[in-house]
Automatic annotation (TrEMBL), chains A, B, C, D:
The gene is purB. Its EC number is 4.3.2.2. It comes from Sphingomonas dokdonensis. Keywords: Lyase, Purine biosynthesis. This is Adenylosuccinate lyase. PROSITE patterns: FUMARATE_LYASES (PS00163). Belongs to the lyase 1 family. Adenylosuccinate lyase subfamily. InterPro entries: AdenyloSucc_lyase_C, Fumarase/histidase_N, Fumarate_lyase_CS, Fumarate_lyase_fam, Fumarate_lyase_N, L-Aspartase-like, Pur_lyase. One of its GO terms (biological process) is 'de novo' AMP biosynthetic process.
Length: 436, 436, 436, 436
């Protein structure tokens, strides 16, 4: 976890305090269920909750000090709770194994993290939609291979991003369901010493599904799918970030990350405004992707479990969720305040002297009865002049001055082929598909 | 693609012939839709389908020869088709761009590949279920950290695998939906020269969804999610493969990959039977996982597309699907014919002289009124003798010979604590959860 | 292996014929050493080499047919050789294990592949050097964050690439040494049935080092290092490819991949010239990088070996080397024929009206006795006008028209600060460092 | 960075204090060189060093507070230093760019980290050597595929690990050289405003090489190679960790991680001793490997630099080095104190009733004049009895009771073939190769 790439709500999920609180809730709910089943006295559960209602502070240092002696984190925690609650606490954890607490806690944490990530996506979607509507018909050049192709609108670019992050939202919802399961099934998952009804009770109270069959642990294919999904979301972040970086290049400059009025780009070079936020997002995406493979390698635990996954998850569970949360929020801010320059978009689109309409003129000539070969030749000989002038000449004007062309097409007909509207007649259709 | 790790049905999807056939169908369906819209003559579509009904062979070499000249694969294909069909073929591809054909074709191929993979999983699930039912109550030791913990059944191990691959099936179905979309939207996705109804028609005919908003290409977050899912499935394969490899170790030998009666393990060492199939699966899983990151890196294409994804997909689309298909089938064969040795399972479980029941005796003494401290001491002093004898002594017998123990527990009571059935009382519950 | 991304020399290394030939040489050299030690008759080695000198064709199908029966590739090969050579062949392979042959063969193949890759790098370096010298003083703008910063030369860009690929060469030489080892040490590496002198003889004959201690196999950390190195080289390829892609963007267009005179960029859009080769290289780099992780996962084989690495290597040994060879050659071709447009470079550098010199004027004013605060204000008020004019105004001219500026600096002094030569005074130094 | 997987010396390299101290040294050395060149007053350098000799505390909070205003970390640092040193400090950083400081600082940090890692390896090598010598002739079974093959010694296993980590040491030394370079070359690497002699001076003072050609930054192929090397070392750690985990399995139990006399394996299951340290190492290896791909993706920065690498390095530079340092130290501790059970090794080797010697008897019969076919049959009919008895019968005894065998071999001759020494005759040779 790198503090500068962290936001407080997500970070809070991964603090020792938060973890111990979830542990307590799991233990207290389980004790409650055991009491209902007559396995432990009802007073035990009551005592736990009575203490909990006092909203007690969690003394992490005290628990750590006990762990330094016992070398066992869950036992240390239980010991500390017993010191606070008193004699009734000895009925906690009956028939359970440490992994029941650890894995169910991780499920709660990842579910909460998912909720934040989904909310992040919702915020991003709202901003994307607003800016897409705003620029629904702002003309800009579509580029394939980095080369001018044919016109699109800036709103279409954002609509594509909206659709992509809508898919990411769906994937995150599925990823949340993958990991939001509860296992209270004992040392090797057989419920030998704990009734399955305890698991059902805890699951219901925590808003988790019951894990159908666990070993000592919840199977790690679930977590692998979760982190793989985060890697996909990160890749979509990178895509939009790279788009902004390209648009802000000096030679393109069709959009820019927001610069506050008094802000300095560089103390030495006053002309500089760098797309540092989206470059940063590009790097953060690499990190979130980098956590996918360790998560995949965590699946093949030996027999009913080995503990090799544990150290991996101590890194990637906080790091992947905190980083992705930060990245989504940063991207939302970038899009929200993105400075968009329609005039520059138009200027760039025009820089090739109207060559981007060459295909349409070609088709018009054909439809006017000129053979395809001749049509191609007529367009090309004018297009090449434009090309060689580096856009100083205008294709439209050259065509109008070419008698062979005007023999087939009137000036008005030529102008019609240079109409951007032709390219935008289905923007409504696409927007309706994307935004409903 | 490595031939020895390939099966014909999946490989067939990725041949040039298969690709060209899909291309033709896309073009013919599109021409049909264009004819319905009055853009091209109805005769054009009729001519295409009439030729197609002759079930013509695809002359890949001829198409390649044309490509060697035109340097463009789709144009080469269209040229060859025109040579076969005649004049009416000139109406094909009207208003479309090459990516419309290429990406929609890839969608068809990945959808077909998904269908095979899902069928593979179904076959694996059927075998897992059969073997799980067969060994539902076959006792075996549960191991955490590779160390004996408490008893499970061999059927429970397979039930866990069944549940895991059921999740994989769900994921594959979702992954199929991710990639099964059709885009016929023109050079930069604006439908400038092709009506969206053409796309809808082709999609319906090919069983694909319509891509809501494409650029020049179908967005690659879809494919990233697809290949990430394959990586998760591969990891689950590795998990079960590693389980078998462990069970076949000389010292464990609780199960073995099938050996035909006359088969030789080694010409030099007649005692050898190696788990080569599951070792092989472990390696294949690494490969399928290795394709995830390139797929994630393919997402951030520049603007409306760059073509960097294309070479990646020429490798990973065949390699990942062919390898995973082979691996699933191989795993199914391994489980189907797995030699299971319940006697050895029992023998291994017994090798520690009944120590695996120490916890239960401890609890029984406590419930019989002995203090927890004394109970622990009584069990431990007998357990240590067993431990030091390397399992030659029996905990049960030692306890019965310990007067302090028998003062609290009768021999019958002691025997009761060594009852395996205690651990299996919820096997039915778990099986019902898994198999319904 | 994707045929279109393969070149014949590298591909030839990985054919069955090539493999079998290396197997034969290993076996024949070993038999020779065994004969020298008196373990087998000298006639055995003589017979093998006598047959070999006839330059016999390797009948792969026949060997495969034997393997289909024996289920063992090395035994199948030995059987076939025995059929050709006759009775003396029965002394081959004495005391050896299959892995001795397989792993030593892989070492030979990877060493040969390294030699090709190193030659590829040499060719690339030669081209980089030539183009760097050619454009040693071709002015072009240096960009950080994609934004104009200060001037560099195009030759400096290529010198950087030269230095980077020189490092890659050094790494490849080290990677070759990592894998070029020979192991002829028997079933578990103890030389129980084969004298270490056999290994030494074979190693010397094949130009390999002796593996100091093998298990059944050569340890896979060597191969991991090899493939990791290939991943680094691929990343450097990507870097230069991305540079070219950026330079070819429509708005930048400072360089272009070569287009032959008659070549068409697009049948529909005659203005298009796409950097498809470097985009392709970007994708190929992803693939070569993707093979690194499987190679790393191959290291932790169980005990004296498990065979999980084998399937991985059947994919990545050919695929990584063939792809990298192709990519290096393609990159060499791109740089060799790269169309470079110095005029456009100058034009782009000028597009901001000389703002790139603002820092130098600031320093000159300061040195002329104006306070730093005043200097900054004077430069800034003129720079902002240039900025707002989108480069239509000239900073140089505005400064000369600003009385407060000219009070401190003469027109000649102002001109001096706009001298590009100032930035290039150390180009010789850098070139000397890089090219010696 | 996860505190529990961190050691203080390595962590100290990555603190803000450590970073600021290196920054100061770079700036002060540069100022010194500038003074020598007459660019700045000699008093400026003197003032800086005079202050530094007071061993001043670095007030990180104060610097952070300035950065919160300036939004620029290097400027914030320079401002704070100026506040401490006074007027002479204004000559610092003359002609330099922030990356000169940042990248050279990273080089110093990675070089220091490398030194710790190399020392870690040295400690591990010393322990491996000691334990290898100790068990040079401790017989244990060699296993391929997890199945008994032929005898090795436990010392040979450790010698192999020694050789592997010796290679890792060589690789780390090379990786250190990759990253230990200094760049003081200005905004785009042209030395426009700073003389190359400044760079040479700083490099010499800091023990770094001069970067031959930098852009705005030191090229990231260097760092990619560094982190890739760390990934290889991590994989070798995993290999040895997995070996220990296998040896500690209940059924094998040939070695164990150290357990202190009073330690409890489990409060509930007193028979448990889990290989938790080596399982942990397995997970840590996954993490260090996971950082390789982001480092590779960092290479292809845009033009003279973009800043996407920066966030990646904020994670992986500390995390990869801290984790690997911890892992190497933990592995050293595991091997140092590893409990080795030669009796159990012998017992496991014997569990197959001497079948591991079947190959040698076969050869002896052949050499005694029995045909190979008859020899195979004679050995096999006795071997099968042993196999079916699960090792209860002894091959040696059965052979001696088989008249057809004893007709060819005397009892003494049979015994000779069961001599382990046969397998160990070249242990000295191998040890000499490895340890010199």
């Amino acid at each position: 976890m790198v503090p500068r790439y962290s936001r407080p709500d997500m970070t809070a999920i991964w603090t020792p305090e938060a973890r111990f609180k979830i542990w307590f809730e799991i233990e207290a709910h389980a004790t409650e269920a055991l009491a209902d089943l007559g396995v432990v006295p009802k007073e035990a559960a009551d005592a736990l909750w009575a203490w909990w209602r006092t909203n007690p502070a969690i003394d992490v240092d005290a628990i750590d000090a006990i762990e330094a002696v016992t070398k066992h984190d869950v036992i240390a925690f239980l010991t500390w709770v017993a010191e606070q609650v008193g004699d009734q606490a000895r009925f906690m954890h009956q028939g359970m194994t440490s992994s029941d607490v650890l894995d169910t806690c991780l499920a709660v944490q990842l579910a909460r993290a998912s909720d934040i990530l989904i909310a992040d996506i919702d915020a991003l979607l709202a901003v994307l939609r607003r800016r897409a509507e705003e620029h629904k018909l702002t003309p800009t050049i579509g580029r394939s291979h980095g080369i001018h192709a044919e016109p699109v609108t800036f709103g279409l670019k954002l609509a594509e991003a909206y659709a992509e992050f809508s898919r990411c939202r769906t994937r995150l919802v599925a990823a949340r369901a993958e990991v939001a399961t509860c296992a209270i099934s004992g040392a090797v998952g057989t419920f030998a010493n704990v009734d399955p009804r305890v698991e059902a009770h805890v699951a219901a109270k925590l808003g988790l599904a019951v894990e159908p069959v666990s070993t000592q642990v919840i199977p790690r294919d679930r977590h692998a799918m979760f982190f793989a999904t985060l890697g996909v979301v990160a890749s979509s972040i990178e895509r939009l970030a790279v788009e902004v970086r390209h648009l802000q290049r000096t030679e393109v400059l069709e959009a820019e990350e927001y610069f506050s009025p008094g802000q300095k780009g560089s103390s030495a070079m006053p002309h500089k405004r760098n797309p540092v936020l989206t470059e940063n997002l590009t790097g953060l995406a690499r990190m979130v992707r980098g956590y996918v493979t360790p998560a995949l390698e965590n699946v093949a635990l030996w027999h009913e479990r080995d503990i090799s996954h544990s150290s991996v998850e101590r890194y990637i569970a906080p790091d992947a969720t905190i980083t992705l949360d930060f990245a989504l929020a940063r991207l939302t801010g970038v899009i929200d305040k993105l400075l968009v320059y329609p005039e520059r978009m138009q200027k760039n689109m025009d820089r090739m002297g109207g060559l981007i309409h060459s295909q349409r003129v070609l088709l018009a000539l054909t439809q006017a009865g000129v053979s395809r070969e001749d049509s191609y030749r007529l367009v090309q000989r004018n297009a090449m002049k434009v090309w060689e002038s580096d856009g100083a000449l205008s294709l439209n004007e050259l065509l109008k001055a070419d008698a062979d062309v005007t023999a087939a097409l009137s000036p008005e007909a030529i102008d019609a082929e240079f109409d951007l509207g032709y390219h935008y007649k289905h923007v409504d259709t696409i927007f309706a598909r994307v935004f409903g």
